[in-house]
Amino acid sequence: MEARKSYFVACALVLVSFVLSAYYYPRMPGQMATHWNANGVADGTMPKLWGLLFLPTLTAGLLVLLAAIPRIDPLRENIAAFREYYDLFIVLFTAFMLYVHLLVILWNLGYRFDFTMVLSPAIGVLFYFVGALMSHVQRNWFIGVKTPWTLSNDDVWKRTHRRAGPLFKLAGVIAVLAVFVPRYAIYLMVGPVLLVSVYLTLYSYVEYRRVTA
Question: How many CB atoms lie within 10 A of CB 113?
């Protein structure tokens, strides 16, 4: 997908989220449920104006940042090498945020479901595509596994991201499977990504020591 088309689709998705907020505003309770605990139970609220505007506004702000990164990164020529995957990630990310916003609206309309369980497949898809992105990302200052060792050496960057791709994909698959074990869904969504992040940090250090020895 071309960059312009990607941003057009992403902007359209953000617009849809604002339109949904405006349309359902009269039907929302004065205090909207906006936070759910690890068991998928609502445990936090916001006034309905902020409850309806928070996620769309946050998504719009992040979209502006994501659009700016290829222009402001000192290594922007490297981003051009994987720009197709980056642009697809932007679309997928805005679609994910719209999905979360829709779940919030549905809950406050009176529909009841395990929030964590219905969120896990979407998070899994997002993580899986992050893995696909990681497999192609070139050294830059904003995207990827940025440790002192990956940023200091091209070989360490490449080796770390070759390892990161399959691991994030695996974390995504595990997150999707969490829908079948809702009792442990939060652990299956968060745990693998935390473990992968720690592992990749240590791996990049070990590889840097090996390369520069």
Answer: 12
Q: Is the dihedral of CA 147, 149, 153, 156 positive or negative?
A: negative
Give CA–CA dist 142/152, Å, rounded.
14
Tens of pLDDT, residue by residue over 13-61, are 999 999 999 999 999 999 999 998 877 788 889 999 999 999 999 999 9
- What tokens appear for 82 in the block? 């994987």
Rg (CA), the chain: 19
The distance from CA 147 to its chain's CA centroid, rounded to whole angstroms, is: 19
Cβ–Cβ under 8 Å, residues 124 and 172 = yes
Residue 145: phi and psi, rounded to 5, are -85, 100
| CA distances to 54, 131, 141, 208 from 149, in Å | 36, 20, 13, 6
Its pTM stands at 0.92
Using left for φ > 0, alpha for ψ between -120 and 50, and beta otherwise, residue 32 falls in beta
Token pair 């994501």 is at which residue?
66
DSSP string, 92-108: HHHHHHHHHHHHHHHHH
With the C-alpha atoms ordered 142, 90, 205, 213, is the resulting torsion angle positive or negative? negative
